[in-house]
Amino acid sequence: MIEFDASLQRNGFVLDASFSAGPGITALFGPSGSGKSTVLGLIGGLMRPSRGRITAGGTVLVDVEKGIFVPRHKRRIGLVFQDALLFPHMTVQQNLKFGRWFAPLKARRAASDAIIEVMGIGHLMQRRPPGLSGGEQQRVALARALLAGPELLLLDEPLSSLDTPRQNEIMALIERTRDEFAIPILYVTHALPEVERLASHVVELSSGRAVWSGTPSGLRSRLRAENR
Amino acid sequence: MHANFPPDDTGTRSTPISADDWTAIELSLRIAAVATLACLPVATAFAYLLARCRFPGKAVLDAVLHLPLVLPPVVTGYVLLLTFGRKGPIGAWLFETFGITLSFRWTGAALACAVMGFPLMLRAIRLSFESVDQRLETAAGTLGANRYWTFLLVTLPLALPGLLAGAILCFAKALGEFGATITFVSNIPGETQTISSAIYSYTQVPGGDAAAIRLMLFSTAIALAAMLLSELLNRHLQRRIAVFER
Fold first, then answer.
1. Out of A75, B61, B208, B241, which residue is the most buried by the measure of CB atoms under 10 Å away?
2. Between A and B, how many CB-CB pairs are < 8 A?
3. A 142-181 near B (Cβ less than 8 A)
């Protein structure tokens, strides 16, 4: 369970949003510039809010009034970006070990083998990231994030640099991640089909505010009504 | 001080490089190597500070660190003599506490070369830190690595070609350093006489040209070898640390 209520001013952009998200996949939906990635950055500890409080699974991550700010390496929140951001000087295997190495023993919930098998990257272990395709990189990035034993997974438009067949492949993997590893996922996107396929709950952002929340089908009817 | 000059074989074309010359070459290489190794950790620390941190007075620090690049070398050498000489504040303390003397010793020459090579090394390493994608450091953080682990496992390995380039520049500068070295530690054969100061001495005596040219050719060969070695190492590193294609 994520409770988000925070604001941040940055280069003329104002984020002031409040929402909550439960288990399963919650989509953060909105056009570019609506503040979706900023929300992820605040939850992941990449930025500090100027006001507010963020909790995840009962743990306070940020509370500006009380002066609490958990640094990102202690948050146990996995982040997968548009670019896979694999370490180019390490093999796939070393990239995966990097995530595992820093995970506390009790947090290593899923076995490495299971994660590697689900992601279908067993044959890539000795390869280096620059030689991988976009889809392969993204699968390794997902596996790396999962191996770090996160309590929450943040996905920031993970499909946007892939072609359609690759997108379907990664979406299937995200579904399996949700079902087999039982990790709550916050999924940033501006694509309705992704929301409808993956999410059980949607938070719509617009100009830095959470303007609506509900189910994916509710979002579809709402958008249809708006366009009419 | 100049008792050994001109050496007996000066000007005789048939003689190869003399024993004194070999001493000067060996000293030059030792001084340059020690100066480069001493510079590396300090330059790396300051380069990281300048590339990644924001603090008041950063521009001033940047300017001060680059001073040896723009000051006349003689001035740098004189400042070193005033501070690290036996009677200088740091030099006196070093001598009284550890019995260390730097002035007129080869270690002092290494210090002078390190100071002169420092800005070149700093620039190269800073550039390479700045070219490391900070989002990779962010990714390391979200995987649970604190900033020290992130530096050791991500930033430093990716900046390695820059560290190498900086080390080569500093080594080359140290090999050729003359002004600051001769001001701080003079030109003592066997102790502080490097290739540069030996060539200078040869040019000051009649008939020293042949010996000077021999040393000159030799130092050119060393410089070329260093550049080739660095190019080879750099290619090797670049292959290992390929950049993202996207």
1. A75
2. 78
3. 144-145, 148, 161
Q: What is the pTM of this model?
A: 0.83
**Best CA proximity match to A5, nearest among A37, A42, A33:** A42
Residue-wise pLDDT for B174-204, tens only, equals 988 999 999 999 998 888 999 999 999 999 9
Q: How many domains, chain A? A: 1
- Residue whose entry in the numeric block shows the structure tokens 């940020």: A62
The verdict on a CB contact (< 8 Å) between B136 and A44 is: no
Q: Does B54 touch chain A (CB under 8 A)?
A: no
Query: CB A89 to CB B157 under 8 A?
Result: yes
Partner-chain contact A79 B142, CB within 8 Å: yes
Is A99 in the B-facing interface, judged by CB distances under 8 Å? Answer: yes
Domains observed in chain B = 19-240 (1.10.3720.10)
Query: What ipTM was reported for this prediction?
Result: 0.89
Retrieve residue A144's tokens. Answer: 């790396």
**One-letter amino acid of B204:** Q
For the stretch A143-168, pLDDT in tens is 999 999 898 999 999 888 888 888 88
Contacts of B138 in chain A (CB under 8 A): 46, 72, 79, 85
State the Cα–Cα distance between residues B232 and A181, nearest whole angstrom. 47
d(CA A134, CA A118): 17
Q: Which of A73, A130, A145 is closest, CB to CB, to B244?
A: A130
Contact A84, A138 (CB under 8 A): yes
Return the closest-CA partner of residue A186 out of A210, A208, A165, A202: A202
Could you tell me the residue range of the domain that residue A40 belongs to? 2-227
